[in-house]
């Protein structure tokens, strides 16, 4: 559970932030007016007046861009640089885990070939092995 939470789950919610929030109307960081209370009364002008100002938008998009960037020293889930185990059984389990991650990565890449907009955020080759901010 710890490995999943600090790798795949984090990648699922973090890696695509800029893709989603980079277009501010998808999720405005602030609203300058309360939401409409009656259906049919909102129009384009009231919608635009409700959105945050340019400086706020720039600050939020820059923050989301920074949070979505991969760290320069990133280590991915399938990479095991340090050897923490000397016994055969845990080393075998690490190798089995790595093989399964490679298989999943190939499956994800194969599935994505047919998609207009591929979903790569959970490809084990791209998922960081920890949370790095």
From TrEMBL:
PROSITE patterns linked to this entry: LIPOXYGENASE_3
Name by which UniProt lists this protein: Lipoxygenase domain-containing protein
Domain of life: Eukaryota
Assigned keywords, A-Z: Dioxygenase, Metal-binding, Oxidoreductase
InterPro entries named among the record's database cross-references: LipOase, LipOase_C, LipOase_C_sf
Biological processes per GO annotation: lipid oxidation
GO molecular function term, any single one: metal ion binding
UniProt key word Membrane: no
Domain Lipoxygenase: 1-133
């Amino acid at each position: 559970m710890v490995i999943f939470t600090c790798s795949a789950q984090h990648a699922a919610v973090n890696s695509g932030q800029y893709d989603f929030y980079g277009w501010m109307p998808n999720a405005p960081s602030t609203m300058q007016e309360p939401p409409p209370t009656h259906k049919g009364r909102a129009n384009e002008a009231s919608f635009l007046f409700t959105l945050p100002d340019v400086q706020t938008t720039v600050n939020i998009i820059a923050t989301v861009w920074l949070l979505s960037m991969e760290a320069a020293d990133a280590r991915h889930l399938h990479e095991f640089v340090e050897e923490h185990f000397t016994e055969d059984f845990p080393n075998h389990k690490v190798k089995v885990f790595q093989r399964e991650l490679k298989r999943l990565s190939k499956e994800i890449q194969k599935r994505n070939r047919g998609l207009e907009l591929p979903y790569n955020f959970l490809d084990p080759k791209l998922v960081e092995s920890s949370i790095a901010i």
